[in-house]
Amino acid sequence: MDALGYIEDCAPDVNAALQECLPAVSEKPATLHAAMRHLMFPAGKLFRPALAMAGAEAVSAERNEAIPLAVAVELVHTYSLVHDDLPCMDDDDERRGRPSVHVAFGEAVAVLAGDALLALAFEVLSSAPGDPCRILTATRELAAAAGSRALVGGQVADLEFAQGSDLTGADVESVHERKTAALIAASVAGGAALAGADEEQLACLRRFGRAVGIGFQIADDLLDRDDDDPCNLLRVMSSDTVGERAAYWLSCALREVEDWGETAQPLRHLARFAIGRST
After folding, report:
1. What is the CATH number of the domain that holds 223?
2. Partner of 221 for a Cys bridge, out of 69, 90, 232, 254, CB 3.0 to 4.6 A?
3. pLDDT tens, residue by residue, 162-210
4. Is residue 264 classed exposed, middle or buried when 0-12, 13-18 and 19+ CB atoms within 10 A define those classes?
């Protein structure tokens, strides 16, 4: 099964779990709950949830053991999109072919909807069935990825670069690592943690996810070459060099799981898909 087939195969279980955990629009406060659901359905690509489930499979477990982490990471990812789109951030009026949450519901409700999605993510994960130690490990993976040293800090750096700072390739990749790769690494390692991965396996999968995440964002840079985003490697490197960086990170990712056998095949397919989109 290729990467797109794998994602499509995982999607019904993830969507069903998201539907179950999100408050209904009929539940008060209805406006807030409608705003929380606005970007969730129809869902995005569900790439991160698929990585979580592939992480569980990689350690020889059933992929549905990772469902709580898969749902939580999609909630965190969506919260970050809601906040990124705000006028005080990236100021985007459209997301996933629909008006951004702040356009549809107003800025204040959009901020609160993002806050509520983030809180719900940890409610879902902390309520997962199974071994409390596994749940705690997965929760730590996701919390670290969402914090000031990773996702939030990467957004701050992105805003600072937009104000005219001189950038190097290392600066841009540092933002990619925090803003994108940290959550992707938490998806893989967190899913594996819920499935019983040991520390050595988790360390390997974190490195795999970091490499996939940086390469994923570099692929976006190549696809968005006509965008005016200052935090794009094409602002500081030629397109050929940027392509070489993408290939480098793919090779780093695949090297981490080259001895893992067939159980890691979904991870390999997802890595090649994520980084190869721009070629």
Report:
1. 1.10.600.10
2. 232
3. 776 678 999 999 999 999 999 999 999 999 999 999 999 999 999 999 9
4. buried
CA dist., res. 41 & res. 18, Å (int)? 9
Number of domains in the chain: 1
DSSP code for 24 = P
| Burial classification of residue 228, based on how many CB atoms lie within 10 Å of its CB (0-12 exposed, 13-18 middle, 19 or more buried) | exposed
What amino acid occupies position 211? A
pLDDT tens-place string over residues 247-264: 999 999 999 999 999 999
Range of the domain at 187: 3-276
Give the E-state strand segments of 50-152 in sequence order. Answer: 94-95, 98-99
CB atoms under 10 Å from CB of 235, counted, come to 15
**Cβ-proximal residues to 191 (8 Å cutoff; 6+ apart), any chain:** 51, 52, 53, 54, 55, 56, 65, 66, 69, 70, 138
Residue 273: the pLDDT is: 97
Of 207, 196, 198, 191, the residue nearest 251 (C-alpha): 207
Those residues whose C-beta lies under 8 Å from the C-beta of residue 124, and which sit 6 or more positions away, are 21, 68, 71, 72, 75
First CA to last CA across the chain, in angstroms?
A: 21
14: burial class by Cβ within 10 Å (0-12, 13-18, 19+)? buried
Q: Check if the beta carbon of residue 232 is closer than 8 Å to that of residue 172.
A: yes
Token duo for residue 250: 């793919």
